[in-house]
Amino acid sequence: MKIQRIAQRLDEAARLAQATLQLSGEDTVTLDEAYQVQRQLIEQRLARGARQVGMKMGFTSRAKMAQMGVSDLIWGRLTSDMWIEEGGSIDLSRYVHPRVEPEVCFLLGKRLQGQVTPLQALAAVEAVAPALEVIDSRYRDFKFSLPDVVADNASSSGFVVGGWQRPDTNLDNLGLVMSFDGRAVEMGSTAAILGAPVRALVAAARLAAQHGEALEPGSLVLAGAATAAVALRPGVAVRCEFQHLGSVAFQTLREE
Ligand code: OOG
Ligand code: MG
To answer: Which atom of ligand 1 is closest in space to residue 56's alpha carbon?
Structure first.
């Protein structure tokens, strides 16, 4: 069956770190089918022992929409095997063409589902943290249509979460600098995320509900990148410093 076949193709591309072709011909999918593929893809990871730990929003900033040539919010699922320890190292040979981008992460203390106001969303937050997301499209040349990238779990690949801060930390317009080996590669503000990152949480609750899902207590929500993503290379110390929120870092191993 088509959904199963595409999910398997994308799962294999991720496991082997080998790019696959964009979905076309009989494998072209609608947005609705793309979310079915995504769910199937995640089922396969769960069957291998991973746990679903939350969700991530995509294309919540103009910088990201412009970089990738798409203009709609999407979401993907975060699983435990994507977690990268803060300060830890990753081996780039496990990825196709990884990039990194600055994000903020919410930890939910209460359940959120459906239409909620920003105030209700904030009331469900237990803590907030600076974060970095490692994205890695499984498609050749990092090119895709909106349904393609949704099927590929929104390019999710890894995430690093820094120290948790109080839930009432104001996230609305915090300056940030992402650096490689101490040199700035992207600068921006959390205001780039839908005007205020809490709006990404509101959107996450609404989009999840459209697929019969809720944001459960204990789950993480990545709000989407504040700047364009930057390609990773071996042997680099990656760090993002956020005004009032602290920093988050990891490194990539040198090539053997
Ligand atoms: C898709 C994922 C988008 C974000 O933060 O906007 C995303 C991609 O850019 O490949 O994670
Ligand atoms: Mg992202």
So the answer is: 11
Task: In whole angstroms, give the CA distance from residue 82 to residue 64.
Answer: 21
Ligand 1 centroid from CA 145, angstroms: 12
**pLDDT value for 255:** 85
Contacts of 78 (CB under 8 A, 6+ apart): 52, 53, 54, 55, 56, 156, 159, 220, 222
Ligand that comes closest to the CA of residue 97: 1
DSSP state of 232: -
Say how many C-beta atoms besides its own lie within 10 A of residue 191's C-beta. Answer: 16
Q: Residue 140 gets which letter from DSSP? A: G
Query: What's the CA dihedral at 201, 208, 132, 85 to 10 degrees?
Result: 120
CATH T-level fold of 1-255 = Fumarylacetoacetate hydrolase; domain 2 (3.90.850)
Tens of pLDDT, residue by residue over 77-94, are 999 999 999 999 999 999
Please give the model's pTM, rounded to 2 decimal places: 0.97
Q: Which residue has the CA at smallest separation from atom 3 of ligand 1? A: 58
64 lines ligand 1 (CB under 6 A): yes
Is the distance from the beta carbon of residue 135 to the nearest atom of ligand 1 less than 6 Å? yes
Ligand 2 center from residue 58 Cα (angstroms): 5
